[in-house]
C-alpha cells in the first residue's frame, strides 16, 4: 500500500446538506483547490397537497455516508486524513425539526422550507399584529410567511402529540438542519452540542437581527418555549468535535446557511456586492455591510455572516424564489418529458424559443417580491403548435424571469443598479439558461469555473476560525477564482416585451387556492360539504334510476 502523500498541507472539509442531496468536499486552503467530493441523493415526501417533508434519520445517514465515501477516495489518492483540520457545515435553511434529546429520535419528519401547511396559522397570527407596529418584520427582517421556521414549529406544537408531550417533559430540542447535524456529529445523546449560527437563526422568525439573540416577545407571540431553542453562535468558531467515524476529533468550526455560504464563497465581502444561486430555489443576496437595509419592494433583510465571535455582523438584502431547479425535477419526475435533468438543455436548443408559451412555477406559492401563498403554477399561451421542447424552454425562461423580478426589486431598494450578476449553483452549467439570464437581465452574467461555491464558502469559514487559523480571509490572501463572462445577445426591446408578458402571466397565477384546501390537503370537490353531498346523492339517484328501468 502506498504511503500517504506528504506536502499537501492542512485541509478543510465542507459538509453541504441541501434539499436534494448531501455532499462532503475537501479543499486546500492555500489554493482553494477542490481535492475530493462525494454526494448522496435525498428524497422529499409529499403526504398531502402543499406538504413537503424529509426524513431526519435519512438526512444524517446520508451525511455519514458521504463523509466516509470521501475519506475512502482521499485514501485512494494517498492523502492522509489527519491533514483535515476542520469541518464546516452548510445547510438548506428554514427546514424545521424537533427531536428527543434523551433518545436522539426525531419526533416528526423535518417540515421543509417549501411546505405550505401553515397558511391558516399565518393568517391567524397576522391578525394579531398591529397595523402600525409590525414588530415581527422590524425585529426579524422577514414577512410573516409559511417559509420560515416559527410557524412550522407552531404547527408541530398544535398537531403532533409526541412533540407536545416532549416539550411538556423538557425532552424536546428544536433546530434547523444545521443544528440537527452538529448535535449528532458531536455526540448526540452523549454530549452533542445544540447550537446554530446567526445566519440560520435569522431565518426562524424568532431571532432579533439587531441584538443577535432569541427574542422573548417573538417567542411569546408564536407560543414557542425558549428552552427548546439552540445556542446561537457566530458563523466561524469551534462548536465541538466529531465523535465518530474516520474524522473523529476533527473540530466543526464553520456554520452558514447555504445562501450565506455562497455569498462568502463568491467573496462578496464588500457592501453592494451580490450573488445569485440556482438550486432547488433561486436566491439573490446583496451585501449591505454592517447596516440593516429594509426593503420597500418585497425583499428580505437577513444576516449575511458573522465570521468570528469578535467579528462584526454583516447583513444582506435577499430575494427568494421558491422554484428554480425544482421545476426541472418536476418535468422529469412528474411529467416524464425528460429522463435526466441535463436533457432539458437539449430540448431547449431544439425549440430555440418558447413561441409564446409562459410557465409560472408557483408550486409553493410565490415568494419575493409578491409573497402570495395562494398562487399556483400555470402554463399559458399554449397553441396546437406547442410541444414539450417549448415547455422546456419556457421552464428555463421562468427561472430567469423570476431572477429579473428580484433583481429589479434589489436595484430599487439599493438605488444603484448592479452592473453584472455573479452566479453559482448546479444549474449554471446549463449554457442556454445562462445566456437567457444575461439576455433577460440585459447585464453580463459572471460564473465561476469551479461550481462548488457554497462548499467553498463554509470551508473558508471553518478554516478561518480561531483555534484553526489555516484559511486567511484577508483580501490580499484570497485565491482568485477563474470566472466565465456571458454577455447579453438580444436587443432591449425584445427582452422587455418578453418580460412584460411574463409579468402578465404571473398575475394570472395568483389567488388560486383557499386556506382550507392548503391546510387539509383535501380534494377541492369534497372540501365543500354541500357540493360533496350533491355529488354523492346524484350518484345514488343515477344508480337507482338504472335499477328501476332495468338497465344492466
Keywords:
36% helix, 6-stranded mixed beta sheet, alpha+beta, single chain, globular, 7-stranded mixed beta sheet, 552 residues, 23 strands
Write the layout of secondary structure elements.
Elements: E1 11-17, E2 21-28, E3 33-41, E4 53-54, H1 56-76, E5 84-91, E6 96-100, E7 110-111, H2 119-126, H3 135-140, H4 149-159, H5 161-168, E8 172-176, H6 177-185, E9 195-197, H7 198-201, E10 207-208, E11 213-214, H8 216-222, E12 231-233, E13 236-241, E14 251-257, H9 258-265, E15 274-278, E16 282-289, E17 300-305, E18 314-321, H10 325-335, H11 343-351, E19 358-360, E20 378-380, H12 388-414, E21 421-424, H13 431-441, E22 445-448, H14 453-464, E23 483-486, H15 492-508, H16 515-520, H17 529-549
Parallel strand pairs: 1-5, 5-14, 9-12, 15-21, 21-22
Antiparallel strand pairs: 1-2, 2-3, 4-7, 6-8, 10-11, 13-14, 15-16, 16-18, 17-18, 19-20, 22-23
Helix pairs in contact: 4-5, 9-14, 10-12, 11-12, 12-13
Q: How helix-rich are the residues, as a percent range?
A: 25-40%
Please tell me the overall pLDDT: 87
Radius of gyration (CA) equals 24 Å
Strand content: 15-25%
Number of helices: 17
Total DSSP E strands? 23
Ends distance? 80 Å
Spatial order of the strands forming the largest sheet: 17-18-16-15-21-22-23
The major pleated sheet works out as:
7 strands, mixed
Estimated structural class: alpha+beta
**Morphology call:** globular
**Unreliable parts:** 517-549
Quaternary form: single chain
